[in-house]
Amino acid sequence: MARLGDSDLDVFPICLGGNVFGWTADRDRSFEVLDAYVAAGGNFVDTADVYSAFAEGNAGGESEAVLGEWLRARGNRDRIVIATKVGMWDRRPGLGAENIRAAAEDSLRRLGTDHIDLYYAHRDDERTPLEETLAAFDELVRSGKVRHIAASNYTAPRLAEALEVSKREGFARFTALQPHYNLVERAEFEGEPAGLAERENLAVLPYFALAKGFLTGKYRPGDASSESPRAERARAYLDERGVKVLAALDEIATLRDLPVASVALAWLLGKRNVTAPIASARNTEQLSALLPAAESALTDAEVERLDEASA
Hints:
Blueprint: E1 2-3, E2 10-11, E3 15-17, H1 27-39, E4 44-46, H2 62-74, E5 81-86, H3 97-111, E6 116-121, H4 130-143, E7 146-152, H5 156-169, E8 174-178, H6 192-199, E9 203-204, H7 231-235, H8 240-256, H9 260-269, E10 278-280, H10 284-288, H11 300-310
Parallel strand pairs: 3-4, 3-10, 4-5, 5-6, 6-7, 7-8, 8-9
Antiparallel strand pairs: 1-2
Helix pairs in contact: 3-4, 4-5, 8-9, 8-11
């Protein structure tokens, strides 16, 4: 287990992404994945109110509802760290105080719980003063409905400003950052955001840790066999640089007898302040390719090989 920033949360180093629950993984398949994850020692699940509104026939809230049903069926709420988010769903948009309060109540109801362990601002809302947003989050923390708060999709300047507001006003502060970060998407996070996370002891929980499936090694030049919902976006990485990254991953995976996906996640886990990359699995076979990363630290030479291939 790893401590999440300066919080009191101890989490498994691979966070299970819940974006597929109620979408590419139906209720029964989602239960199978969750059961297998917990059996392997996992305790950290990431979802959002907007999941899976983007799927045909869905309206949003499906992922939280499936997760909530599983928690009730297994009676294990006190052993699972639940992260969910507010601010991106068009039915509950933005980070105004009223919306945050209402969205939290909706999420608690769907999850069937009295508290959220980690509650994210899903994306920045520049139309709402940070003071209003953070006061609303602070109210939830003080009431016990939320244990800790976090930020996703914030620029470094806005995140630094939010931390300063919390300090000045005595509000609960963001304890974690969820950026878009992986072997083929490095520029946005590395540099100013990474430096801020380190200075402020923010846990870093990268999303799209496997680049929409590209870093599983499933997508190769000339292979158009997969018709998964993410296939087209994953194949967008099949340029010269992407092929070099796959070659480096294949090399290390073969030498270490590890799944390619686990090597990609282990690279993230070797970066400063990265506590638990977020990766989803729509079946137990996919999950089994992720879990070895939790116990597979890369050598300096392996990290350098991947750094060079993805530069």
